[in-house]
Amino acid sequence: MQRLGRLWLLWRRPPAAGVAARNLGLREVASGVSPPGSTSPRALNIFDRDLKRKQKNWAARQPEPMKFDYLKEAVGSQIADRVYDITRNFSLALDVGCGRGYIAQHLNKETVGKFFQVDIAENALKNTLEMEIPTVSVLADEEFLPFKENTFDLVVSSLSLHWVNDLPRALEQDTDEIQVNYPGMFELMEDLQGMGESNCAWNRKALLHRDTMLAAAAVYREMYRNEDGSVPATYQIYYMIGWKYHDSQARPAERGSATVSFGELGKINNLMSQGKTSQ
């Protein structure tokens, strides 16, 4: 996998639970925090990348691809907010697995000078959303990026790395959960297909019989049904933003330069009171 040079990584805690739901017709979105300690096994060559390309291309060719964009729009907006939290400008940025440009559409020229958007699906790149900043579309597999090391000032990714083989364990913690309520299991499956998010694992079953799917839908509804009759689906979101250090940003203090030890933190109130008294 292409290395992205020496990057300073920002890991942000997800938004607090209890965010108001967004009304998206029959699909309602709410955000919350996932429980700590969730892990996933690390494995090689789990996913059929060629099949994933076909799935995403099919989704991008549909007459109304924006019908299924609600989740990617929400996550793209949240990642853009995290970029704005970084107090500096980026001359050259990269979006790995950009889709139709769900992050770039929320950024401006004052924050990013030029944006490279990489995706495995050519139809997604041909159908990108309107955006303010200059962009360059690159057709490439996220596992084999065609860039030299240390090229970009900022690297972002949204809802793409979960289909990458051999994803580092570093992405296993501090995740966000977005819950979407669907009329039923079949509407959930329709939307996943419309997003280009159908299963592409090598060990997937080629066909599910109608009776099996009906039985699964009935069990799903019986076990997880909401009071209004809808059924919830929870998407676990991994956020990562990487950027290079810049002279305009504050450097961490040198080791050993502290004037107060951690052991004295419990006495901070007394120390502050003494300081006021001496004044």
Describe this structure in words.
With 279 residues, this protein is α/β, with parallel strands linked by helices. Helices cover 25% and strands 19% of the residues. It starts with 7 loop residues before the first strand and ends with a helix. The N terminus is likely disordered.
Quick summary of this structure?
The chain has 279 residues and is an alpha/beta fold. The chain is 25% helix and 19% strand.
Q: In which range does the helix fraction lie?
A: 10-25%
Content of β-strand: 15-25%
Shape: globular
The arrangement of helices and strands along the chain is EEEHHEEHEEEHHEEH
| Separation of the first and last Cα atoms | 60 Å
What is the makeup of the main sheet?
6 strands, mixed
Q: Number of helix segments?
A: 6
The side-by-side strand order for the widest beta sheet comes to: 1-10-7-4-5-6
Q: What's the average pLDDT?
A: 76
What Rg, in angstroms, do the CA atoms define?
22 Å
What structural class is derived from the secondary structure elements? alpha/beta
> How many extended strands?
10
Residue windows where pLDDT falls under 50 for at least 5 positions: 1-42
